[in-house]
Automatic annotation (TrEMBL):
Protein name listed in UniProt: tRNA N6-adenosine threonylcarbamoyltransferase
Reactions catalysed: L-threonylcarbamoyladenylate + adenosine(37) in tRNA = N(6)-L-threonylcarbamoyladenosine(37) in tRNA + AMP + H(+)
Taxonomic source organism: Candidatus Nomurabacteria bacterium GW2011_GWF1_31_48
Cofactors (names): Fe(2+)
Location of region: Disordered: 224-251
PANTHER family: TRNA N6-ADENOSINE THREONYLCARBAMOYLTRANSFERASE, TRNA N6-ADENOSINE THREONYLCARBAMOYLTRANSFERASE, MITOCHONDRIAL
Length: 409
């Protein structure tokens, strides 16, 4: 069976063709399903949206409309002799795939509609069913996918806790059973990725800010480690250590002990009793910090060390908060498997610290780098698994609609 999956919920247009190699039975027993990625084409709009400092919805819609037919041609060419068949007008007669999976929410409604309308046209032309997919379920299943090789959906130990961290969402989702979802915590304001992007903008860095801030923070961490190696064990606590002798560079030491120790940002909602998050206060704290630092030096962003120090403390605040809440939920619900997915899950510091904090009794899964952000491989996986779970029952094509605020349940 072949599935064509379409993703247009935000600023990435993506189409995949997956082949299912083995059937799955969901119920008492789950037989591992194996997939092969036959073709995968993506078009990212990052460069277009960069000048607006974020995603501009009507521009995203226009780009999806432009990209979808081109990507379709690319993927079909990989599995059929598409161009030749078009010339011979054969393509309308036979269906190249058996099922279409398309994201119907959450996301930007104008963008979602472009994918849905495109999917409906193809489904009618080829007389095949459509399975609408919740984008967030796609992210939860993304750690099982591979962008290039064949892959298997293994049996996963439940309960599962998923931390979804992206530009639009920060959610903790409990799955007491496989493919059953309950949101137990979410952000009350900004998403984690959005906070990264907004802080980057305050620091005059381009969109998307997450990868740049995290690179600056990693550089600061490296310098901090190097400088600590140059300080003996009993030199006292961070912030009061005298300069060490030996191989260390005094500049690196002054970086970590004077500047970084001056910067302290809040760990938001850490004392709240629920599993909700809030990142807008942290963002405002960065704004005030920058304002205060600028009083001493109006050109702070010409100084790489200052940028690194702010990025380090900001990233530490975000990652510590995410891990603290995840750990609390893990203990409460006796979680066996933790999934971290969404664009922010590609953050190296989050990956290292999450694995360390969750201990050996819990499996912690992250997607491969290519599948952390929005992609259509995860939509194909979710679409097929839902198709099987629902005993191959699909909604009427005319009833499929975009749902910008769709929630997992
Ligand atoms: P998504 O919404 O899933 O497409 O993910 C995009 C979001 O992830 C944007 O807000 C990015 O800034 C953020 N992001 C991407 N890479 C990283 C990273 N390494 N660290 C933190 N945030 C990141
Ligand atoms: Zn997403």
């Amino acid at each position: 069976m072949k599935i064509l999956s379409i993703e247009t919920s935000c600023d990435d247009t993506a189409i995949t063709i997956l082949e299912v190699k083995k059937n799955t039975y969901i119920g008492k027993k789950t037989i591992p399903t194996s997939f092969e990625v036959l073709a995968n084409s993506t078009n990212s709009q990052i460069k277009i949206h960069r000048e607006f400092g974020g995603v501009f919805p009507m521009m995203a819609k226009r780009e999806h409309i432009k990209n979808l037919p081109l990507l379709l041609e690319q993927v079909l060419e990989k599995i059929t002799n598409y161009k030749l068949e078009i010339r011979r007008k054969k393509i309308n007669k036979k269906k190249p795939v058996d099922l279409i999976a398309v994201t119907y929410g959450p996301g930007l409604e104008p963008s979602l509609w472009t994918g849905i309308v495109f999917a409906k046209e193809l489904a009618k032309k080829w007389s095949i069913p459509i399975m609408p997919v919740n984008h967030m379920e796609g992210h939860i299943l993304s750690p099982f996918g591979k962008s290039k090789e064949k892959f298997i959906i293994p049996n996963i130990k439940t309960p599962i806790l998923s931390l979804l961290v992206s530009g639009g969402h920060t959610e903790l989702i409990l799955s007491k059973k496989w493919m059953q979802y309950k949101i137990i915590g979410e952000t009350l304001d900004d998403a984690a990725g959005e906070a990264y992007d907004k802080v980057a903008r305050m620091m005059d860095l381009p969109y998307p800010g997450g990868p740049i801030i995290s690179k600056l923070a990693e550089e600061a961490r490296k310098k901090e480690k190097q400088s600590l190696r140059g300080v003996s064990q009993d030199d006292g606590p961070r912030g009061s250590a005298p300069l060490a002798s030996g191989d260390s560079d005094p500049e690196k030491i002054s970086f970590s002990f004077s500047l970084a120790s001056k910067i302290k940002l809040p760990r938001p909602m850490i004392y709240s009793k629920n599993f909700d998050f809030s990142f807008s206060g942290l963002k405002t704290a960065v704004l005030y910090l920058i304002r205060d630092l600028k009083k001493e030096n109006p050109n702070i962003f010409k100084d790489e060390k200052i940028k690194q120090a702010i990025a380090l403390e900001f990233e530490n605040a975000v990652v510590e908060t995410l891990i603290y809440k995840t750990k609390k939920a893990k203990e409460k619900y006796k979680i066996k498997t933790i999934i971290v997915a969404g664009g922010v899950s590609s953050n190296k510091h989050l990956q290292r610290e999450m694995k360390k904090a969750m201990g050996k009794d819990t499996e912690v899964l992250f997607p491969e780098k290519e599948l952390t952000g929005d992609n259509s491989i995860m939509i194909g996986i979710a679409g097929y698994l839902q198709f099987i779970k629902k005993n191959k029952k699909v909604p009427k094509i005319s009833s499929i609609k975009a749902k910008g605020n769709l929630r997992l349940r």
